[in-house]
Specification:
The protein is mainly alpha-helical and about 80 residues long. It has helices spanning about 5-10, 15-35, 40-50, 55-75, 75-80. It starts with a helix and ends with a helix.
């Protein structure tokens, strides 16, 4: 896990849209497997990157894609907590 998550985070900031999309999907699947309670740190990281002013548009897009995949993976459970 300690190797996998940083690699996926780096891929979310890649300049190639297909790589960002694949990384976002992988993050969603990983988060679903870990469970919502174990994904809180990841969600906080994604949300904080969406608000950073120093990110390029492609990097912010990757963070948004990642967040949407994580939210989608948890479905209604995400909103009920």
């Amino acid at each position: 896990m300690k190797i996998l998550i940083p690699a996926i985070k780096n891929s979310l900031f890649d300049s190639i849209p297909e790589i960002r999309a694949s990384a976002a999907k992988a993050l969603g699947k990983l988060s679903k497997g870990l469970g919502l309670s174990n994904s809180i740190e990841l969600l906080n990281w994604l949300k904080s990157n969406l608000n950073r002013k120093d990110l390029a548009a492609s990097e912010r897009s990757g963070a948004a894609q990642g967040l949407s995949e994580v939210v989608s993976a948890h479905g209604d459970n995400f909103f009920s907590n």
